[in-house]
Amino acid sequence: MESSTTDSNYNDPLGEAALAYLAGKRNLKIKVQSNIVEDDVIPVDYLFRQFNEMPVLEQQAILHCRGSVLDIGGGVGSHALELQKKGLNVTMLDVSHGCCLAAKQRGVKNIINDDFYSLTSEQGYDTLLLMMNGIGLAAAIEHLPVFFEQIKKLLNPGGQVILDSSDLRYLYMDEDSYCDLPDEQYYGEVMYTMTFRQHKTIPFEWLFIDSALLAAKAKENGFSFEKMADGHHYDYLARLQLIT
C-alpha cells in the first residue's frame, strides 16, 4: 500500500519493518487498525514473497504487463523484481523511504521515492501497475476524478492500467459483522492506521471499490474497463485503458 503520510520521522512502519527484516529480524508484524474491522496484522515476510507465493491475481497481473512499467506503491519491490526477470523496463514508485531502500537492497534498478500525486514525468509508461488494492490511493469515490487525471498524465498512448480491488460488501453480509452498512458514504471507503514499533502513520483513507462501480466511474472519466479475472474472495483483477 502507498500512503501519503510523509511529514514525520516516525511514520514509516512498512519501511522500518522491511529494513528490520533485511537486517535479519524475523517474525515481525505490522499492526493495522481500521474503522470497519477489528485490529489485524501484516506479517512482514509476506512483503518479500516470490512469484510462486503470490496470489493468482498478482501472478496474472505480472504476466499481463508490457512495455515500460510503473509499479505504483511497489513496496519492497517484489513485483518489480519479477518484471525485471521478464526483461521489462520497470520503475518502482513508493512514498516510503524505507521501502525504497529495501527494494534497492533487493536489486530493483529503477526507484522513485515520491507520492503518486506529486509525480511528474517526461517519460510516459505503457503499463501502470497498482497491486495490493493499489487503487486505494484514490482514497474515496469523490476523489476518483483526480486519480484518473493523474494516470492520464503518466500513460503512453495505447497504455494500460492493471489493478486489483475488492468488494467489501461481504463484511456486512454476516450477522456477526463488525458494523452496519454505512448510509452516508460508500462502504468501501476505509480509514487506516499502521504501526510498527515507534513508527505510526497518521490515519489515512483507502478505497476498496466494487467492479460495477469502478466500471461506471472509469467510463465517466474516459476509460474503458475490462474485468480480467475474479479472485477467491470478492476480489478481482481489472484493466483500464483510455477511450480514444
Automatic annotation (TrEMBL):
Taxonomic classification: Bacteria, Pseudomonadati, Bacteroidota, Bacteroidia, Marinilabiliales
Short name of one Pfam family: Methyltransf_23
Keyword Transferase recorded: yes
UniProt cross-references to CDD domains, sorted A to Z: AdoMet_MTases (cd02440)
Species, as recorded: Carboxylicivirga sediminis
InterPro entries reported for this sequence: SAM-dependent_MTases_sf
Keywords: Methyltransferase, Transferase
BP GO terms, sorted: methylation
Listed name of the protein: Class I SAM-dependent methyltransferase
Annotated GO MF terms: methyltransferase activity
